[in-house]
Amino acid sequence: MTGRAAALIYGLASYLIFSLSFAYTPAFIGNFLVPKTIDVGPDSGLAQAVLIDAVLLCVFAIQHSVMARPAFKRWWTRIMPSSCERSTYVLIASFLLILIFWQWRPIVATIWRVEGWPAAMLTAIFWMGWLVALVSTFQIDHFELFGLRQVVDALRGAAGRMQAFKTPLLYRLVRHPLMLGLLLAFWATPHMTAGHLLFALMNTAYILVGVRLEERDLVAEFGASYEHYRRRVPMLMPRLFGGGSIASKTRRGG
Questions:
Q1: Which domain covers residue 137, as residue numbers?
Q2: Per residue in 91-119, pLDDT tens?
Q3: Would you tell me how many other CB atoms lie within 10 Å of the CB of residue 94?
Q4: What are the transmembrane regions (predicted)?
Q5: Is the pLDDT of residue 241 over 60?
Q6: Are 102 and 213 a contacting pair, CB within 8 Å?
Q7: Is 103 exposed, middle or buried (0-12, 13-18, 19+ CB in 10 A)?
Q8: What is the reported pTM?
Q9: Contact between residue 187 and residue 200 where contact means Cβ atoms under 8 Å apart
């Protein structure tokens, strides 16, 4: 029981750190409220800034992709409680995100700048992207996705759950609404600087690779059920008419 209580505290702490880092992210990318943003920070030469920023983003992407793979999870849970696996993934990702905030080097050359109603429209899309990303996590299982449900179940002595693969509204439009929301948030800005563009490009590349790795794992585990869903619903570009739903069992990857 002591170990289970410790796991719960660990899971709660990981979720709190994730929540704080996630809340900081729109302010960092949108350049408001916080002192250190994507366009505000220590001056560096162009080559140094590109190198540091690219390394930060690559480390973040590699951690996400490697630790989300089933083979890594099987190895990882041999040396730590399975109830803490997701919380550890979330905690490391959050620390790496904080490292990006801390060490990011702005590259402030302007790529585009718009004002008036185009700026208002892009700002609205920016916030819509964050809303889509957040809502999509609750439409599956937000607390399982970020590790809380596992540690609560472990404290209760309950067996691990198989989460229902549901297709509420957003998941009937695209298979990866979380990633769609992030793409909207990364690209929709009235003032695109070179540093922001580097951030958007590298994260877009990671997302395109990451969703294919996740889908490979889902197809390998669930076969025809997920293939059927994949044929009916587009990956990232919404199809506003048509689509469909599917009821099967799955665990969501990262």
A1: 1-232
A2: 999 999 999 999 999 999 999 999 999 99
A3: 20
A4: 12-34, 46-66, 87-104, 116-140, 169-188, 194-213
A5: no
A6: no
A7: middle
A8: 0.87
A9: yes
